[in-house]
Amino acid sequence: MTTHRTSVAVVGGGQAGLSTSWYLTRDGVDHVVLEAATAAHEWADSRWDTFTLVTPNWHCRLPGYAYDGPDPDGFMTRDEVVAWLAGYAPTFGPPLREHTRVTRLAPRAEGGYVLDATGPDGPETWEADAVVVATGGYHLPIVPPWAPALDPSVTQLHSAHYRNPEQLPDGAVLVVGSGQSGAQIAEDLHLAGRQVHLALGDAPRVARTYRGRDCMTWLADMGLYDTAVAQYPGGLAAREKTNHYVTGRDGGRDIDLRAFAREGMRLYGLLDGLSPDGARSTVTFRPTLASALDHADAVYTSICRDIDRWIEARGIDAPPPSTYEPVWEPPAEPTSLDLGAEGVTSVVWAIGYRPDYRWAEVGVFDGSGRPTHTRGVTSAPGLFFLGLPWLHTWGSGRFHGIARDAEHVAGAITSSLRTAVAG
């Protein structure tokens, strides 16, 4: 087994890992970026065919590299994002080792860390004074523990593996989850003419445009993407919030689930499980549909009113305000669905991911397996995290905030290395 030595090992070659490498390269810090597959591969591997960004293209900026295309207020497709990211590494030549999967991280008795990995030529070991874990926070797709008990004739897949309607067998589809992925996949299937049954969670929504501008451009001007998580109501609990659903498809528009229902999509409250009578093709729902729709609309309206106040306080010349009026109300609270009777042949689980850091043998994780840190800096000397949702701000899990986070972590790294040398 080959043993390598470096000052800093960055685990993960996505936008977070490459952004860290940009600053370390600039500062002349010896380091390596270890990537299990290929740089930024997740953008091609885990998005569906009609995926688009939900943030405007001008948000797309990495250290030393920003979107400079013809449509800054538009929304890049999956393939356009992949192409844009592919142009990043060549601008500064990071010490990137692809197809090198880290399988274990552990502290060394004499200080620093040891990383076991499997590279193109077999097992290898890396010794480093500092480590940046930049593998993101979305590792294991979540499906309910009772999912295997569902009728085996029903195809099941997670949103991470959904690509297009043609991938699924003919018939109706149950989409579970109304966050960004669930709402957009439901729309994709709906536009393809599929009968869609959508089980809603508690995700909020946001207007695509309001008073003449994209809402996310207003929110950026208002500093929402720059506010530290500790300053938000509820503090660190903001890290558990679900992002607002909206779409950048076809130039960008609202996702209004009430409008979809008026067009024939069937909506339900929170999915509870299999029918207690033992029927393997019948699922049950909590009576939360009306409250879920009302909550999403309330957040939508609240954001619009915040923008109104911002415009008024600064005397900005903008089109007049407007108010959303619900276009559909649920006539009842459906509490069950017989998949067989309704012709449902597929279920798409869009209920998120859980972290998986079992390979990291360092005591910095909480009871749910998430790293504990302050702006990416952990209590373990020389160990850092980057690329997590709400690592520091709402922008941390987006292109909008990654450069700031990477600069902070890179600065903390160089400080820790100087301290180690001085000691």
From TrEMBL:
Transmembrane segments: none annotated. Keywords: Oxidoreductase. SUPFAM superfamilies: FAD/NAD(P)-binding domain, Nucleotide-binding domain. It comes from the Bacteria. The keyword Oxidoreductase applies. Pfam families: Pyr_redox_3. The keyword Protease does not apply. Coiled coil: none annotated. InterPro entries: Auxin_biosynth/cation_transpt, CHP04046_FMN-dependent, FAD/NAD-bd_sf. This is MSMEG_0569 family flavin-dependent oxidoreductase. It comes from Nocardioides oceani.
